[in-house]
Please model this.
Amino acid sequence: MINFSALKKYTFPFLLVMYAFLFSACSESAREITIDSSFDNGSLGEVRIYGDTLVRGQTMHWIKRDMLGNQFYWFYFRLENVKGKRIQFELTNMAGTYRGNKHKIMLAPMQLVVSYDNENWGRLEDVVFDETSNTLTFACEFRENEAWIAYAHPYSSKRGDHRVSQMKEAGADIEVIGHSVLGRDIHLLTFPGNAVYSPGNQVVFITALQHAGENCGGYFIEGLIDALHEHPGLPDNLIFKIVPMVNPDGLYYGISRYNYAMEDLNSEWDDGISDTINKTVEPEILAIRNWIGKWKKSGGGIDLAIDVHSHSQFLKYNCMHIRDERMEALVRHVNDFWPLQQYYIPYNPSSGNFLDYFTDQEGSLAGTLELTQAHTGDGDYLDIEDYVAYGEGMLEAIIRFIEE
Model:
């Protein structure tokens, strides 16, 4: 016989639990989607959310001070309340200018990056660019409640500062050689620590992240400096001087290309001659140039200078811009570790760039690296581990090049 009295005793609490569970599940799915980019390296313009299925708006358009550059491509934002929802994103007005010319940075198929912990990143394949309307469309069905989406693998200024601290603990010499527009430190790392220049030394000078949206350069430098720290047989006459983050303000604010004063730092190496609006060299480059002056006064020189940049996802290859045929040997050595092409570029007296400055003003062998943020032609998109491995391989290639 069924004991209805006992059944009633247990049924009511069970129903309460089920109701609470169903209410929680329904309220979870009913929560409005939120989007935020107000964090280190985050960037997004004004967007509108339509229900649970569509986000439409713009990226930030960072306008150069002389109005000849409108850089729009970098975006990096966090979403909440998205688990189980398939959302389409439409980023409009994806057109800009670079040095007065159209900047067609979104023309090729690309794969954006997505993360559920803001550390490990996968790729989004459902990405389309409409050249007629300049609209970038992509979609994602989210498996977690919180997610991050970016144009490419982001690299925060906090992470960069943390890595600098780690290198100090590992015995590298760390100097603050100046400050950014907003007062952030510009660090110079020396390997081996406490190295003093003497005749016969070979000095390699490397910079990265002049352009904030070219984030993979941060991971490249991490691989390089880790390899320097761990290398068992670094030649005694070899000194590395590295500025890992030339543009920390731009990195923090997620600015596509410029510093906080909206200047392209890679046009600032010529004392502002090519800058028709602002004749003063920006403080980030001035800090480096002032250090170079002190280094030379102490008898030091710079034998090899390399600046690390990246293409957009538009170009599917790595390359090094050079002006001296002797640099072909370095490119050849790099190709033993990862694919690199070389491109001669003519001297431009009004460019104000790193390559022309070190070639003509310092008499150094120099090259500007451009890493792809997509793939190298095989369709296998690169990840953070690839960029770290690129930095490790670059160290081995430089050692071979110097010893040659």
